[in-house]
Amino acid sequence: EPEVTQTPSHQVTQMGQEVILRCVPISNHLYFYWYRQILGQKVEFLVSFYNNEISEKSEIFDDQFSVERPDGSNFTLKIRSTKLEDSAMYFCASHSDHQPQHFGDGTRLSIL
Amino acid sequence: GESVGLHLPTLSVQEGDNSIINCAYSNSASDYFIWYKQESGKGPQFIIDIRSNMDKRQGQRVTVLLNKTVKHLSLQIAATQPGDSAVYFCAEQPSGGTSYGKLTFGQGTILTVHP
Fold first, then answer.
1. Which residues of B fall within a CB distance of 8 Å from A55?
2. What is d(CA A104, CA B11) in angstroms, rounded to the nearest whole number?
3. N or C: more exposed end of chain A, with fewer CB within 10 A?
4. Closest-CA residue to A89 (of A22, A18, A38)
5. Do residues A94 and A4 lie in contact, with contact meaning Cβ atoms separated by under 8 Å?
């Protein structure tokens, strides 16, 4: 069964550094998302992406965040200058029209 | 505002019992609801979904019930097995527009199944 894959599984970064989280969505999917989950809390929406542009973003997704689909297979989340409070699990998800979202296993981001 | 919440944060059952996990939602504009299972160290895994034009949907050992009058969603797991132990999240999605696909998750219920 096709899967959403995310790399790396764990990223440790110094505060203030840039980080790029990578995702390969399921190949025929058209809608792409990033969510985050702070330890012990619920999953929170960050951003949705369709037709090569952002559809919607949450308040969390400020100017330090950006997303990109650089080619036909990858979908990336960049945080330009990381803060301690960016430490969380980051999940990528994708789906096709009128189908449920499928999630990757996430990247654990630890900011020191 | 939008919110999706769960009545019971933990549920402990014996193997073979039936489990019921509940969820309340507040956004009446939502028309699509999904249950996800999350095991330790993994991402949310799709279990079952339901659209607002239905009140019940069955899968393999799982049933989702939707009561739009009281904005309540439940997940029933029949003959619960130790492998069902996980955190279960309900999620809701609005009907369309720019928020299409944006999932709002509940807090989660920890299900523990004892052999």
1. 98, 100-101
2. 26
3. N
4. A38
5. yes
Using an 8 Å Cβ cutoff, are A88 and A106 in contact? no
* φ, ψ for residue A31, nearest 5 deg: -115, 135
Instruction: For residue B101, list chain A residues with Cβ-Cβ distance below 8 A.
Output: 31, 33, 48, 50, 55, 95, 101
H or E element at residue B58: strand B56-58
Q: Kindly determine whether residue A42 and residue B34, on different chains, have CB atoms separated by under 8 Å.
A: no
Distance of CA B107 to CAs A13, A38, B88, Å? 28, 12, 9
Cα–Cα dist B42/B37, whole Å: 9
Residues A6 and A108: beta-carbon distance below 8 Å = no
pLDDT of residue B98: 67
Give the pair of three-digit tokens for residue A64: 């330090």
**pLDDT above 70 covers what percent of chain A?**
100
Mean pLDDT by 10 residues, chain B (115 residues): 54 96 90 94 95 95 96 97 96 80 91 95
Query: Looking at beta carbons, which residues of chain A come within 8 Å of B45?
Result: 103
Q: ∠ CA(B34), CA(B18), CA(A101), 5° rounding?
A: 15
Q: Name the residue with higher pLDDT: B1 or A91.
A: A91
pLDDT computed for residue B3 by the predictor: 47
C-alpha closest to that of A106 among A17, A28, A46, A29: A46
Token reading at A25: 């969505």
